[in-house]
């Protein structure tokens, strides 16, 4: 189980993971009760990478002693086969282990208090197939909630194959200490009947009216792959994958000029707006608490991906730190994307060129939700990121037909609470090099008068964002607001700085109140934009360990210094994603909810870079 690396930014290999673990064993840091909640690469020094210098391959292992609950971060140099550092983890908990999911259910079902609650509700005969969901607890500073805590809600199933999310046992909450393997307390409130509606969704008789769509590329795809390096129609980049973020993109260049050094979605928070005892505390950090990459899917041809596909495997560490292969973790293919440009001249002669895009994607399943992360590269130099949320909405029970202020009824007696999916993209820009500045560009109307005698005039204003505090911004569709990253060293043929624009597709930011604990923990989600000067250690917008963290880490802590972001190596952090008021059409499985943003050239090219496209696959359009 090995894949050899040839570049400092290549993903970790199975051999490297095994070698790193062996160093820890030799140092006496691995015992029978040691587990590995997170194993991720340490990014090599940027300056060394840009200079083409050899890089030290390093891995950060988070170690958890399940007997004591103590955790530490250990950095191992695989290149030097040595331990670089070993430090006790600070505030917050490491992500959850897969084995802790089963442990949480076992602790809950063994609890006399939980069993008594089930019997009191007349559900004692349904305990065998009950599903006890392992759910991150948030943070509320309760005296008994120190160490490794998790909460569990109960759902009924007809058998082990049944959808567990359709029959919630409303008002029953088990609070658990995983290290001590005991129930802290059980809350048992109310007697709401369990909904009767079935949540099964994969067994319907398929319609027969759809005719096949076949995608063929008889000469093969237009991209070339050499290890992690991808070259396609003027684009060049490296594809990566790690246990926490999942899919990452590195050193994106267009027409041999740098655009982005690194792009990823390193965090997302899913805060719920319900006040019930079973949901007021829910605010999942799906990367920092559960790990997007470790929960990555093995993608399947014809289902997740369609066309002439190139797959990339990923190598991650399991709970015991042993390397495991995730086959087909990343899918890459080309898609036709309609018209790129067209004009019909005065004589009726039409010139038209079709667009296509390179699609690089991964999908992660975190409990009831599935998230697709799709990065698109276009022939005109545009980059797009799209998140696709699907899966099964989280639900509770209520009286059929009686409205609830924080949840909508999606099936008889089944209520899905309002919530948000707030993703944060980390965009390490390098527009024609590492020296960039950031501007906010708004279109503005001009009051009627000397400068606007006919009332029709409008213009645009570009305001430089000079410090971190100035760069805490919200999107504004009313002014078509974009954020422009300009080179401070290079200009185009018109004498203007070469630039790329971040074009948001805005929705609501965090709806929770500033006094709430989720606001303190997910402060990154309160702005659409943050800008920081590049710092290697600043990777996760909610901090390294959001699990059970009181808040304030990550972007709010870093930007408190109000550092300069002018003429420097800048990182843009962009928050996007849907605010979800569930609907009956979302049940029993939810159609994809799309969200995302674009990064497009603005004066980066001297003219339309797609003028040389052929008019069709064979050089002409049919008449």
UniProtKB/TrEMBL annotation:
- Where does the Copper amine oxidase catalytic domain start and stop, copy by copy? 213-611
Keywords for this entry?
Answer: Copper, Manganese, Metal-binding, Oxidoreductase, TPQ
Instruction: Describe cofactor binding as the record notes it.
Output: Contains 1 topaquinone per subunit.
Residues in AGAO-like N2 domain copies: 13-85
Residues folding into a coiled coil are none
Modification after translation: Topaquinone (TPQ) is generated by copper-dependent autoxidation of a specific tyrosyl residue.
Q: Where does the Copper amine oxidase N3-terminal domain lie?
A: 94-190
What molecular function does GO assign, one term? primary methylamine oxidase activity
Enzyme's top EC category: oxidoreductase
UniProt-listed Enzyme Commission number(s): 1.4.3.-
Name its co-factor(s). Mn(2+); Zn(2+); Cu cation
Among PANTHER family, the record links this protein to:
COPPER AMINE OXIDASE, COPPER AMINE OXIDASE 1-RELATED
- Give the multimer and partner information: Homodimer.
Family note: Belongs to the copper/topaquinone oxidase family.
Q: What is this protein called?
A: Amine oxidase
Lineage of producing organism: Bacteria, Bacillati, Actinomycetota, Actinomycetes, Pseudonocardiales
């Amino acid at each position: 189980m090995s894949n050899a690396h040839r570049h400092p930014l290549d993903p970790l290999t199975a051999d490297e993971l095994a070698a790193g673990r062996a160093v820890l064993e030799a140092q006496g840091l691995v015992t029978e009760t040691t587990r590995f909640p997170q194993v991720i690469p340490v990014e090599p020094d940027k300056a060394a990478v840009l200079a083409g210098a050899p890089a030290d391959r390093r891995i950060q292992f988070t170690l958890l002693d399940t007997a004591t609950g103590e955790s530490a971060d250990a950095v191992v140099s695989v290149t030097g086969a040595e331990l670089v550092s070993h430090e006790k983890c600070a505030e917050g908990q490491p992500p959850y282990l897969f084995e802790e999911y089963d442990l949480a259910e076992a602790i809950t079902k063994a609890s006399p208090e939980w069993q008594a609650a089930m019997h009191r509700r007349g559900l004692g005969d349904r305990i065998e197939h009950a599903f006890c969901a392992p759910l991150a607890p948030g943070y509320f500073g309760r005296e008994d909630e120190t160490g490794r805590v998790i909460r569990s809600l109960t759902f009924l199933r007809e058998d082990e194959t049944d959808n567990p999310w359709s029959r919630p046992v409303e008002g029953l909450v088990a609070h658990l200490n995983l290290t001590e393997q005991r129930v802290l307390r059980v809350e048992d409130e109310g007697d709401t009947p369990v909904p009767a509606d079935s949540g099964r969704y994969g067994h319907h008789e398929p319609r027969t009216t759809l005719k096949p769509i076949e995608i063929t590329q008889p000469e093969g795809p237009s991209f070339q792959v050499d290890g992690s390096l991808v070259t396609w129609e003027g684009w060049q980049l490296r594809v990566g994958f790690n246990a926490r973020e999942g899919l990452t993109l590195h050193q994106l260049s267009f027409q041999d000029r740098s655009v982005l050094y690194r792009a990823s979605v390193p965090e997302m928070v899913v805060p719920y707006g319900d006040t019930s005892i079973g949901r007021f505390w829910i605010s999942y950090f799906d990367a920092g608490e559960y790990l997007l990459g470790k929960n990555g899917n093995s993608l399947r041809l014809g289902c997740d991906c369609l066309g002439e596909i190139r797959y990339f495997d990923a190598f991650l560490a399991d709970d015991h730190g042993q390397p495991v292969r995730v086959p087909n973790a990343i899918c890459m293919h080309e898609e036709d994307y309609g018209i790129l440009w067209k004009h019909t001249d005065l004589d009726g002669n039409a010139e038209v060129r079709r667009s296509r895009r390179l699609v690089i994607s991964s999908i992660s399943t975190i409990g009831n939700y599935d998230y697709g992360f799709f990065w698109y590269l276009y022939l005109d130099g545009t980059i797009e990121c799209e998140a696709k949320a699907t899966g099964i909405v989280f639900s509770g029970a209520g009286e059929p037909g009686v409205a609830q202020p924080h949840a909508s009824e999606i099936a008889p007696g089944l209520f899905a609470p309002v919530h948000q999916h707030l993703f944060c993209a980390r965009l390490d820009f390098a527009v024609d090099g590492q020296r960039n500045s950031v501007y906010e560009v708004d279109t503005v109307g001009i009051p009627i008068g000397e400068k606007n005698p006919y009332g029709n005039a409008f213009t645009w204003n570009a305001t430089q964002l000079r410090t971190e505090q100035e760069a805490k911004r919200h999107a504004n569709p009313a002014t078509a607001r974009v954020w422009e990253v300009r080179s401070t060293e290079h200009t185009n043929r018109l004498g203007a700085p070469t630039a790329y624009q971040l074009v948001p597709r805005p929705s609501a930011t965090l709806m929770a109140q500033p006094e709430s604990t989720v606001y303190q923990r997910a402060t990154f989600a309160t702005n659409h934009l943050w800008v920081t000067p590049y710092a290697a250690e600043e990777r996760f917008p909610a901090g390294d360990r959001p699990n059970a963290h009181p808040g304030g880490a990550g972007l709010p802590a870093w930007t408190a210094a109000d550092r300069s972001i002018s003429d420097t190596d800048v990182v843009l952090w962009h928050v996007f994603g849907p605010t979800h008021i569930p609907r009956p059409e979302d049940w029993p499985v939810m159609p994809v909810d799309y969200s995302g943003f674009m990064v497009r050239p603005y004066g980066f090219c001297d003219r339309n870079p797609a003028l040389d496209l052929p008019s069709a696959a064979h050089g002409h359009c049919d008449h």
